[in-house]
Amino acid sequence: MAEGWIKLHRKITEWEWYKSPSVRCIFIHLLLTANTKDKRYKGHVIKRGQRLTSANILAEENGMCQRTVVSVLKKLQSTGEIKKERFMNGSLITILRFDLYQDIEYSAQGCAINAQPNAQPLAQPNAQPLAQPNAQPLAHNIRIKEYKNTRNNTTTKEPAKKLSLDRDGRMVADYFFRRFGGSNLSKMAATYINTALTSYSAKELMKVIDAAYNDPMVQNYNSRKSLSYILNMDRVATYLNNADK
């Protein structure tokens, strides 16, 4: 399982779930741990691109709570990244475009042995494939020179983009200010709100803010009375789990 490596195209940064840390983490983890070839298990064939696992196992492997993993798997199914089926005492997860993402096989020495130049990388149908380790150094040097020239060009700076909140985001921010006071929302705080809303509802996040307001470990430390502390994904999951007990 820990041998070899996977192909991960830079265009994954344009994937719709890339800015959701928990979804991105689980999906890349599935790419890393899925079968690279068909294998038999107790009379069944687990195919290339499949993984026999469970939400509990994935939670332990990624340092998340089980509830977060269940939510992530639903999101990945909703956009056609994976297929999840009940299998024996767990789940059989199939990465639906595994051969598209991992279109090159490598020998034990790291040499490409079955390149498919026409395969298309994740989230970018017309993107060029990744350059291989044996690419000419001249092209690499040219790219470095172009990058330095771009950094030195101070006349084409683009104005900074404002980070906006939708209706649910504003609702969460207003509720936080009513509980903890204040009115100024930083870019970092807005980022934490938008990230948390990819996995949880505004109602759930307001419940988290209530739990944090009643938490002595928050009230006794002013540095923790912030959205960036309270809406940490692991902390959100912990507060919600405790609230459900």
Provide a compact summary of the structure.
The chain has 11 helices and 5 strands, in the order H-E-E-E-H-H-E-E-H-H-H-H-H-H-H-H. With 245 residues, it is mainly alpha-helical. About 16% of the residues have low confidence.
Question: Care to describe what's here?
Answer:
The chain is mainly alpha-helical. Among the domains are: 10-101, Arc Repressor Mutant, subunit A; 167-244, no CATH class. The protein is 45% helix and 9% strand. The protein is built from 11 helices and 5 strands; from the N terminus they run αβββααββαααααααα. It has a 3-stranded antiparallel beta sheet with strand order 3-5-4. A two-stranded antiparallel ribbon has the order 1-2. A hairpin with a 2-residue loop joins strand 4 and strand 5 (90-95). Helix 8 crosses helix 11. The longest helix is centred in the middle third of the chain and has 16 residues, at 137-152. The protein is elongated. The model is unreliable at 105-133, 135-140 and 157-161 (pLDDT under 50).
